[in-house]
Structure formats: C-alpha cells, structure tokens
Write a structure and sequence with these properties.
mainly alpha; 30s Ribosomal Protein S18; 7 helices
Length: 150
Amino acid sequence: MRRAKSKGGPVEEDFGEEIDFSKIRCSLKSLNRPSKDQKASIQPDPDQPIELNFNPFEKADRKCLLCDLGIKLDYKNARFLQQFVSSFSGRVYDRHITGLCSKQHDALLKTIKMSRFAGYMPPLTKEPKYLKDPKLFDPLKPIRPHSYDG
C-alpha cells in the first residue's frame, strides 16, 4: 500500500512536530457538545417514534351505499333496481355481496317486488339494455364474507 506524503498542513503549523492529542480530543469534544440554549431548541429526532391520536390499523366503518349517499328507493326507478339483480338468474344479490344494511336490503326486496308487480321490471331476467350499466359492486368479490363460509 502506498501512503500519502505529509506536506505539513495546518496541524503541523499549530502544534509543530509533536502533536498533543489530548488537546485535539478536548477541542473536538467541546465542539460537539450543545450549549444549554441549543438543547432547548433541538428538534426531535425524525427516527424516533411519533405518537398518533388514532389507530392506523383500525378498519374504517363500513357504511351502507344507500344510507351513505342518502338514496331513496323508488319502484319506478327500474334501472337503479336492476343493479341489485343478477343478470343470469334474475335473483336479488345478498347483503354480503351488495354491502347494504339489513334495513335497506329489506326495503330493496319490497321495492323490487313492487316494481315487478307494476310491470317496470321483468320478473325473472335482467333487461338487456341495462347490462352495460356501471357496476355498483362485484358479485364475484363480496364486500363482506358470507356467514356460512366459516
């Protein structure tokens, strides 16, 4: 290994040929120590844990789609009611798929029954003109697990 040649820099000018390391160490220690005023103004270390007023792992409260948006069910609005009906079987999707609360699901069943009785909705299938409507939920990925799936 090659060593760099010393050209007598500022260390030799201050201390001469003999270097007293005790003076250097003392001077370095005093440089690193904060004064009493500096201790009060030191910012907290960003690596230290922070205190939160809430639990970040807590799941958000699920709200029913109809309750959250304040949507009133109407038997004449067949296009909206068709969103909750299967296009293959004509059956109404269960609560765990639609994410509705029990109160709104019961009201939905009554409204769909009334709409079918009044002739606004077909009794067994979904209207073909409503097949391309945007989906409110994915029937293959339920919002909540089914109670019988244990």
